[in-house]
Amino acid sequence: MLPRAGEVFADRYEVLELMNRGGMGSIFRARDQEGNTWALKVMLPNHFDQEQLRDRFRREVEATHAISNPYIVQVVDAGVDATGGQPFMVMELLEGRELATCYAPGTPIGPVETLRFIAQAAVALDETHAAGIVHRDLKPENIFLVHGPEGHRDVKLLDFGLAKFVDANTVTDGILGTPLYISPEQIHGQSKVTSASDIYALGMLAYTLLTGEAYWSPEYDGKDLYRFLMDVVDGPSQSPRARAAERGAGVLPLAFDDWFGTATATKPGDRFRHAGILAFGLSQALGLAWPTDVPAPRSLARAASSAPPSD
Q1: Which domains does the chain have, with CATH numbers?
Q2: What span, in angstroms and rounded, lies between the C-alpha atoms of 134 and 171?
Q3: For residue 18, what are the CA distances in angstroms to 21, 27, 290?
Q4: What is the CA radius of gyration of the chain?
């Protein structure tokens, strides 16, 4: 049984209300014994006896708790309820909205905010990738927008349930991810899981924010999943500028085509090596300066330190 409002869960959290129900777990507003309010995520009862899903939930806890970054939702507690046996995690309570609710066909997000969101996500991903963690399911629904200290909207990466601690020998445990943002190597199911999959998704996300719809929307709508996945494996058949113009989604800068081609290359080794380098490249493609209140990604500092001196 899932907890109900008014009940005490795991002997220390008073459940206040149900906030959201997802595919794996329900999220409740809860209060601890000191009076602090948190978001309590509890695995759904029908997943208790599914080892793979239970393990995925555990990975979400480990991955999120391992990194302290302002652009990643922070986990403060986790465990298994002794009474019902339900795995749970306790996170900071976010006030804001999902990125997915901020755009629609015909009403995209402007380039300035797009760069800001991609830059912040890149800062977070550089840290997670350096720790050997790959998110594997980046999408607008897994990015939450909160009000930052200077009045801007800031991102918080959510749902590391598909994340996996990786090393040179790690392979996928099947096709995991969201079709519109899944990388070709994830579709193959046998390729090594690396940060390149997140790089691909971040490139696709930038196109979505700039145009108001996902790049693969025309292929995905009305087509069976197998045929669609084969399209993704083959790679984009149309430049992003041509597709945006054809769909009436506005005019993208000429330099965006090359940037997008590198970000979403079918071969992982042909993509940007780091999320921060991808984001910096996007600022150049859009002709915009790096957001002044977003710290420079660690990958940029490494690239600068390893660059040969100029004449």
Answers
A1: 12-91 (3.30.200.20), 96-304 (1.10.510.10)
A2: 12
A3: 8, 6, 39
A4: 20
Residue pair 76/4 in contact (Cβ under 8 Å)? The answer is: no
For the stretch 142-162, pLDDT in tens is 999 998 777 789 999 988 766
Two tokens, residue 49: 């006896």
Burial class of residue 52, CB neighbours in 10 A (0-12, 13-18, 19+): exposed
Task: Check if 137 is active-site.
Answer: yes
Mean per-residue pLDDT of the chain: 86
Find the catalytic residue in 55, 77, 137, 154: 137
Q: In the chain, what is the straight-line distance between the N-terminal and C-terminal CA atoms, in Å?
A: 69
Tokens of 132: 């050997």
Q: Which amino acid is at 43?
A: M
Secondary structure string (H, E, C) spanning the chain: CCCCCCCEECCCEEEEEEEEECCCEEEEEEECCCCCEEEEEEECHHHCCCHHHHHHHHHHHHHHHHCCCCCECCEEEEEECCCCCCEEEEECCCCEEEHHHCCECCECCCHHHHHHHHHHHHHHHHHHHHCCEECCCCCHHHEEEEECCCCCEEEEECCCCCCEECCCCCECCCCCCCHHHCCHHHHHCCCECCCHHHHHHHHHHHHHHHHCCCCCHHHHCCCCHHHHHHHHHHCCCCCHHHHHHHCCCCCCCHHHHHHHHHHCCCCHHHCCCCHHHHHHHHHHHHCCCCCCCCCCCHHHHHHHHHCCCCC
Structure tokens at 121: 């996500």
CB proximity list for 6: less than 8 A, separation 6 or greater? 14, 15
- pTM (2 d.p.): 0.87
pLDDT at 310 over 70: no
